Amino acid sequence: MTAEGPFAEGPLDAEPLAGRDERPRRAVGPEPIDPDLPAPPPVPPPTVLAVVAVGGSLGALARYGAALRWPTPPGAFPWTTLVVNVLGCLLIGCLLVVLTEVPAPHPLLRPFLATGVLGGFTTLSTHAVDVETLLRDGRVAAGLGALGGTLVLALLAVTLGAWGARRLVRPLLARWGARAGGGGGGAR
Amino acid sequence: MSGWLLVALGGAVGAPLRYAVDRGLRRWHEGPFPWGTLLVNLAGSLVLGVLTGATLAGAAGEGLGLLLGTGFCGALTTYSTFSHETLRLAETGRWPAAFGNVLASVGGGLGAAYAGHALGLLWWA
Fold this sequence. Notes:
Chain B: It is found in: Cell membrane. Chain B: Keywords: Cell membrane, Ion channel, Ion transport, Membrane, Metal-binding, Sodium, Transmembrane, Transmembrane helix, Transport. Chain B: Fluoride-specific ion channel. Important for reducing fluoride concentration in the cell, thus reducing its toxicity. The complex is a heterodimer of chains A (about 190) and B (about 120). By secondary structure, chain A is mainly alpha-helical. Helices cover about 65% and strands about 0% of the residues of chain A. In chain A, helix 3 packs antiparallel against helix 4 and helix 5 runs antiparallel to helix 6. The longest helix of chain A has about 40 residues. The radius of gyration of chain A is 20 Å and the shape is globular. With about 120 residues, chain B is an all-alpha fold. Chain B has one domain. Chain B has 5 helices and no strands. Chains A and B meet through helix 2, helix 3, helix 4, helix 5 and helix 6 of A and helix 1, helix 2, helix 3, helix 4 and helix 5 of B.
């Protein structure tokens, strides 16, 4: 993540992306002491995988529940998938800012919530097959509308989520830090 | 088996596989472009396309659709991480990479779904 260096004070956060930071390794155990030992295998720590699996299950179940509650009739505009994806984007924008701003969050929170729950909740495959089916059935306007509409709303949602969280979380943390330590900006 | 259980099982495999692919790819190719997310999104769209074709041809039932489609493919692919990574690319000034990611993910996902659907129909119809 050295390429991120110059952007450490960037507008979103200096964190690596969902679930790919080095923190899980620290959470699982110390670095090997013997330098002759081979490097750890390219398999993620089992704890992180388990946490992502549980989160992914919960996210997929929430999406399934939404599809049962608001079913899309054949040939209709896929509103449920669109809303699920846009909502997930709004939440991940918020979440990743909050996890960056809050001092020392639990190292498994990010893999669980971002990679697991929200990654499992949102879906590109169902969206792609929804659009493909509409286009195949000759419903070109609805298909292109779902494709472009989801993209625009999702990118707006993640931007809005991150912006809103920064506006809300930073002042809250600053107030909390001032009250707790009196050191002035102790939280950040 | 209950539909909820099938979806949960599929999700419990799809999401960690996405994480493992992403981490594995990052060991090979360190850089700002989210190759891992792109790869799982394309692969998941292809598999779901094949499954859709198989379902239409009568070769796959509702249970397989819930396990492999709603659960596994749904959790393997992600729109939230894709959006966030695109925003990150844009915010760090990597506009060509951001546009490329959008085109490859959304256009490529649609193409993969189309190809999968055609393959499924070809194979099972």
